Design the sequence.
């Protein structure tokens, strides 16, 4: 969820301020497709095909999902079609597009002031696949509902919405109906993606969709098992000592998730927390975002001796050391690692597709 908050700050500056867009008739259903050829911050026309739009997934309550569709640069009619759901829940699809697998990145290293530049990312998945970046569940990004009942963010409700979205999107884009379809995502999407895939697989003839599988990265699955594996992992990576690990394992009975059963267990877990507070839980080799100071004395004392503990201490101190503003930026998307907000920032997004007037239901989910 921290990443979502960071995205909200970054998106106050930039994100797809359209300077030129052209629509053309869809191949079926006579709908206009909102094709984007230029975005503010990127020099020249986009070197890939970008389309944005809405698909209604719940007529009774006026729920619509907003998407960014980028065609494969290799062979759009043959390459896989991926529906990508960013985690959170509630992270904008733009975080997936700009920070994960999309073809645009912020030029952070070259940033000085003013409106930030966008640069082309050559290792994007869109080089070899068609990707739909979707604002889901309802209420995320520009997705909305006209009635409160339409804001169904349950796993089963979201799974149904994703199935309906794909069926209707394919109906409007029949040229992609035969492409191998995959549903993918990261983080919290480890919950929603399999549910959506099962929702489709359980339909007769898969609901008319050419579903071939699903993929998840850094996926949430079950809090008990996910969280329970963190301390053994930290021990295996040398971030905590053998003695500290064995103390926690013995006093906690191997249960690192539920309420500590005794004072010894609580003390051991607190010592582990202190020893690893400056380690980035998303990527242990990357610096912790937003950290300004070196670890306090308790961490230094815990990680003071032994080969493994010396390695961990150096890693923790490196993670906790602020980088000069002129230093090259890491690939890790720190929420504080982007261009700083400026006075009179541009609106979040300007779209050639008008946003409906929704009152409080929409503005509650709008980044402003």
Sequence:
């Amino acid at each position: 969820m921290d990443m979502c908050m960071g995205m909200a700050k970054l998106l106050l500056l930039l994100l797809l301020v359209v300077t030129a867009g052209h629509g053309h008739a869809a191949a079926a259903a006579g709908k206009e497709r909102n094709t984007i050829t230029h975005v503010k911050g990127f020099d020249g026309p986009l070197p890939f095909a970008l389309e944005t739009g809405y698909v209604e997934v719940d007529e009774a309550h006026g729920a619509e999902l907003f998407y960014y569709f980028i065609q494969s640069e290799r062979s759009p009619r043959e390459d896989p079609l991926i529906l990508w759901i960013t985690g959170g829940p509630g992270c904008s699809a733009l975080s997936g597009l700009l920070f994960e697998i999309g073809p645009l990145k912020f030029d952070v290293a070259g940033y000085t002031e003013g409106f930030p530049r966008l640069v082309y990312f050559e290792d994007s998945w869109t080089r070899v696949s068609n990707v739909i970046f979707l604002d889901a569940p309802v209420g995320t990004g520009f997705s909305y509902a006209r009635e409160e009942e339409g804001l169904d963010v349950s796993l089963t409700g979201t799974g149904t919405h994703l199935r309906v979205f794909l069926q209707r999107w394919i109906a409007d884009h029949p040229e992609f109906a035969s492409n191998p379809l995959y549903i993918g995502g990261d983080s919290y999407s480890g919950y929603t993606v399999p549910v959506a895939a099962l929702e489709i697989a359980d339909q007769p003839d898969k609901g008319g969709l050419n579903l071939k599988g699903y993929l998840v990265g850094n996926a949430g699955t079950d809090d008990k098992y996910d969280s329970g594996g963190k301390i053994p992992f930290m021990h295996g990576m040398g971030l905590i000592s053998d003695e500290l690990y064995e103390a926690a394992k013995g006093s906690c009975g191997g249960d690192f998730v539920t309420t500590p059963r005794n004072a010894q267990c609580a003390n051991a877990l607190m010592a582990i927390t202190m020893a690893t507070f400056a380690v980035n839980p998303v990527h242990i080799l990357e610096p912790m975002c937003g950290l300004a100071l070196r670890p306090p004395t308790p961490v230094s004392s815990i990680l003071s001796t032994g080969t493994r503990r010396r390695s961990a201490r150096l890693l923790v101190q490196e993670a906790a050391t602020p980088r000069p503003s002129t230093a090259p930026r890491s690939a890790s998307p720190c929420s504080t690692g982007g261009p700083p907000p400026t006075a009179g920032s541009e609106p979040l997004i300007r779209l050639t597709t008008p946003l409906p007037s929704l009152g409080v239901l929409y503005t509650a989910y709008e980044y402003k």
